[in-house]
Design a protein that fits this description.
- This protein starts with 7 loop residues before the first helix and ends with a strand.
- It has eight helices and 21 strands.
- The protein is mainly β and about 500 residues long.
- It has one domain: Porin, CATH 2.40.160.60.
C-alpha cells in the first residue's frame, strides 16, 4: 500500500504529537499516599523514628533493626470512594467501593550472641501499596470550545489522501498504518474526518486545509472517568543495630505499576443549523511497568524515651509501556437530505509505546517520644520536589516539552504526619493525622486525612489490628485525554478500613 509523503514541516509536528503521554500521567505515577499495616496507618504513617512495624520498613529501612524477633504480617483493606466534580450544579457524587490485600511482609532477626558493637542483623521483605488509582468521576459542564477544534487542529496540514481509505482497505488497517508511520496526531485527524466532524476545503487528494462541520455558541460536556490499578513497592531490606542506640538500614526497592484509565466524553447542545448533533469520544489507556529505587535510613536513641530518624529515598526510575484504544461516535446529517446518521469510527487497534520516567526522591525527618509502657507520640516531616519529575529522553521533542511543562507547573511539597498510641495492657488505642501540600503552582491537589485504630495482643505471639482512615483528596483532572485542553477540579472523600494480622516466627 502506497501513501503520499507528508511534508517535512508536518513530520516534525507529528513527532511532537506522536505520544499520548501527558504531564498528568507523570504526576499520578509520582505521588504516594498513606497505606500499610493497621498500626502504621492508624498512626498517620508517622513511623520514621519508631520501627518495629513491617510497613515502617518501607519508609525507613533502619526500622527493620528494631525487631527483636522474626515476624510476618499481612493487611487487608476495604475502601469506599465518594467523588464529586466541582464547578457545576449538575454534578452529583459518584460512589464506589473496592477491596485489596494492601500489605505483606516478614523480618528475619539474627541476634549477635557474642560481645561486639553489632547487636543484631535483620533481613526483611515487604510488599506495600504506595498509591491507589481506583476512582470514578463524572463531570458535567458547558464550554465554549468543542471537540471539533481538537480534530481540526490535528488535521491542518495533513493531505486528504492520507485520511481516506483506499479500495479494499478497512478503517482499522488505515488507522494502524497512520499510527505506525505518522503517529498519534494523524490518527486523530483520521477519526475527525471519518466521523464527519471536519470537512476538507477542497476534495482534491492534495488538500491540507479543513473546516469544522459543527456550529455552536457553547457545548455541553458529560465527561466520565473510570480509573483502576495501583502502585506497589517491593522492599528488600537489610538493617543492623549498632551498640544500643543506633539503627541503620538499606532498602532496594522494586516498583510495579498498573494503571488503567477510561475516559468517555459526550458532547451535545449544538446550534440548530449544525451538521453535527452529538459526539461521543472514548479513550482507554493502560500503563504498566516496573522501576527501581533505593533507600537509606537511620534511627538514633537520644535517651531512653526520645528517638530521632532520618531517611532518604532515591528518585525512582520507571520503565513503562502504554497501550491505548479509542473510538468515536458522531450523529450528523447527510447534507442536503438532512437525515440523521450515526457514524461509528471504531478501529479496534491498540497503539503501543514505551518510555522511561524518573519520579522525585524524598527526604524524611522524624521524632518520637516514648512514654514508658503507657504509649508514645510520633511526628514525621518529609519533602519531595515534584518539578524534578522527568521523562527520560534525548531526541523526542514531545517528551522534552512535557518535561518543561512539569518543571514550570510543579513545585516542592512537604508532608506532615502525626501519630499517637496509648497502651492498656493487651489493648492499644491509636490515632493520627497527615497532610501533604499541593505540588501545583496553580491549582490545589493537596490531600489530608485522620486515622484511628485499635490493636489487641493475643498473647500467643500474634497481634490483631483494625484501622480506619478518612481521607480528603483534592484533584485536578485533565480533559486532554479526550481532546479538550482544559481541566476541572474534584474532591474525593475516601474511607478505608484495614485489618492486619501479625505473628512471631
Amino acid at each position: 500500500m502506497k501513501r503520499n509523503i507528508i511534508s517535512v514541516t508536518l513530520t516534525l509536528l507529528i513527532v511532537f504529537y506522536s505520544k499520548a503521554q501527558t504531564s498528568q500521567d507523570a504526576l499520578n505515577l509520582s505521588t504516594y499516599g498513606v497505606f500499610g499495616s493497621s498500626r502504621y496507618t492508624s498512626m498517620g504513617g508517622a513511623f520514621g523514628s519508631l520501627g518495629g512495624d513491617l510497613s515502617s520498613v518501607s519508609d525507613n529501612p533502619a526500622a527493620g533493626a528494631v525487631f527483636l524477633y522474626s515476624e510476618m504480617g499481612l493487611t487487608f483493606e476495604v475502601n469506599f470512594n465518594n467523588t464529586l466534580a466541582i464547578g457545576d450544579y449538575r454534578n452529583i457524587p459518584v460512589k464506589t467501593s473496592f477491596s485489596d490485600l494492601s500489605q505483606f511482609g516478614f523480618i528475619f532477626s539474627l541476634k549477635n550472641t557474642s560481645d561486639g558493637s553489632i547487636k543484631r542483623l535483620n533481613f526483611g521483605f515487604n510488599i506495600q501499596k504506595v498509591q491507589d488509582f481506583k476512582n470514578n468521576i463524572n463531570s458535567v459542564s458547558s464550554r465554549k470550545i468543542g471537540l471539533d477544534q481538537f480534530f481540526l487542529n490535528n488535521a491542518q496540514g495533513i493531505s486528504l489522501d492520507n485520511l481516506m481509505t483506499k479500495e479494499n482497505e478497512t478503517v482499522s488497517e488505515l488507522y494502524n498504518f497512520l499510527g505506525n508511520n505518522y503517529g498519534y496526531s494523524v490518527q486523530q485527524a483520521f477519526l475527525g474526518f471519518n466521523g464527519y466532524i471536519i470537512d476538507p476545503i477542497s476534495n482534491e487528494e492534495k488538500n491540507t486545509n479543513y473546516i469544522s462541520s459543527a456550529k455552536y455558541n457553547q457545548v455541553d460536556h458529560d465527561f466520565y472517568i473510570d480509573k483502576t490499578g495501583d502502585h506497589k513497592k517491593y522492599s528488600f531490606s537489610i538493617s543492623t543495630q549498632y551498640n544500643n542506640s543506633i539503627y541503620m538500614g538499606l532498602n532496594l526497592n522494586s516498583h510495579k505499576i498498573f494503571y488503567q484509565e477510561i475516559t468517555d466524553l459526550t458532547e451535545s447542545n449544538y446550534s440548530v443549523d449544525s451538521n453535527i448533533y452529538l459526539l461521543r469520544f472514548n479513550n482507554e489507556v493502560l500503563t504498566y511497568g516496573r522501576g527501581f529505587s533505593a533507600q537509606l535510613g537511620i534511627i538514633a536513641k537520644i535517651k531512653n524515651n526520645l528517638r530521632l530518624g532520618f531517611s532518604y529515598q532515591s528518585p525512582t526510575r520507571l520503565n513503562l509501556t502504554e497501550e491505548s484504544l479509542q473510538f468515536l461516535i458522531s450523529d450528523h446529517s447527510d447534507f442536503p437530505e438532512e437525515n440523521l446518521i450515526r457514524e461509528v469510527v471504531d478501529p479496534q487497534v491498540i497503539n503501543t509505546s514505551k518510555y522511561k520516567l524518573s519520579t522525585p526522591g524524598k527526604i524524611s525527618l522524624s521524632a518520637s517520644f516514648i512514654i514508658g509502657s503507657k504509649g508514645l507520640i510520633s511526628a514525621e516531616y518529609s519533602s519531595k520536589n515534584y518539578n524534578n519529575i522527568n521523562f527520560i529522553t534525548n531526541q523526542n521533542s514531545y517528551l522534552r516539552d512535557l518535561n518543561k511543562d512539569l518543571s514550570s507547573n510543579h513545585k516542592k511539597a512537604s508532608m506532615l504526619r502525626l501519630g499517637g498510641e496509648m497502651r492498656l495492657r493487651e489493648l492499644s488505642l491509636r490515632a493520627g493525622y497527615y497532610s501533604e501540600q499541593s505540588n501545583l503552582k496553580n491549582g490545589d491537589n493537596s490531600h489530608s486525612g485522620i486515622t484511628f485504630g485499635i490493636g489487641y495482643d493475643l498473647k500467643n505471639g500474634s497481634v490483631l489490628g483494625i484501622a480506619i482512615k478518612k481521607s480528603d483528596i483534592n484533584m485536578i483532572n485533565s480533559l486532554s485525554a479526550s481532546g479538550i485542553n482544559d481541566s476541572f477540579s474534584a474532591n474525593n472523600n475516601l474511607t478505608s478500613i484495614m485489618a492486619s494480622y501479625n505473628f512471631k516466627l
